[in-house]
Design brief:
Number of domains: 2
Largest sheet: 2 strands, parallel
Distance between the termini: 30 Å
CATH topology of the largest domain: Hypothetical protein af1432
Oligomer: single chain
CATH architecture of the largest domain: Orthogonal Bundle
Strand content: under 5%
Radius of gyration: 20 Å
Structural class: mainly alpha
Order of helices and strands: HEHEHHHHHHHHHHH
Number of helices: 13
Bound molecules: fe (ii) ion
Length: 245
């Protein structure tokens, strides 16, 4: 079987198990299949298409909170929790601790590519502008050293991307912009507390951050994603990732 046929067979098998037909968004499969290739879908035989709750996923509460997204959609979020705890241990402000807690939520539960930008957009309506700004720019700052705070280019990136990798021009542009910004250090502190935050043996409870989140994250009363903020639809997509429309 070709990759394309395998992808289609897997999609078919998955659909067969459910009473709803699931059609994956192009972004789930782009690269595994050529998005230009025509999709041959078997006849739906009168079955309905997936709308709303996907039974394969834990059901979200009616009025989901940020922590509900952590619990039910953001994979094991150890990396985020450890980063936030490290920031706290280092005496960082609440804004920085919150930024550390949220900095990689796009990777944890949404879209990996350009995760800093997506993450910032997700939280922007609910946090201080400085927090979302820092999340946006940590992505670019990660690639550039700052000796003044002891931040070096990550060893891990040499392994992951090879010694010849250089960031794309938009990353370099955004780094230069951020370098001159009054909130530069907030974004930089995400990188500083991020770097040493990978320890699989340390378990941190989400509840350690209840107060900081309570004071610094404006939880909408309708539930996150069910409000009318400019990023509510993104939270809904995380909640219902397989909705047909
Ligand atoms: Fe990141
Ligand atoms: Fe990170």
């Amino acid at each position: 079987m070709t990759t394309l046929q395998r992808a289609e067979a897997a999609e078919q098998a998955m659909s067969d198990e459910l009473d709803r037909i699931v059609v994956k968004s192009v972004i789930y499969t782009s690269g595994e299949r050529d998005p230009r290739a025509p999709v041959q879908r078997p006849p739906d035989q009168g079955r309905r298409y997936m709308m709303g709750d996907d039974p394969r996923l834990p059901r979200m509460p009616d009025k989901p909170t940020l922590f509900d997204f952590f619990k039910y959609r953001f994979g094991p979020a150890n990396h985020l929790l450890q980063s936030a705890r490290l920031a706290q241990k280092n005496g960082a402000s609440e804004k920085v601790v919150l930024a550390c807690l949220l900095h990689d939520i796009a990777i944890a539960g949404f879209i990996r590519s350009d995760h800093g930008y997506w993450g910032a957009q997700l939280v922007a309506p609910y946090v201080d502008e400085e927090v979302s700004w820092a999340i946006r720019y940590h992505q670019a700052l990660r690639f550039f050293a700052d000796e003044s705070v002891g931040y070096r280019y990550p060893e891990a990136y040499i392994k992951l991307f090879g010694p010849d990798y250089t960031p794309e021009p938009y990353i370099e542009r955004d780094y230069r912009y951020a370098r001159e910004h009054k909130w530069y250090m907030t974004a930089r502190l995400i990188c500083v507390n991020d770097l040493y935050a990978f320890d699989p043996t340390v378990q941190v409870a989400l509840e350690e951050f209840t107060d900081i989140v309570g004071r610094n994250f404006k939880q909408p009363k309708e539930g996150l994603g069910l409000d009318a903020s400019p990023s509510a639809h993104m939270w809904r997509t995380i909640m219902w990732p397989t909705k047909y429309l």
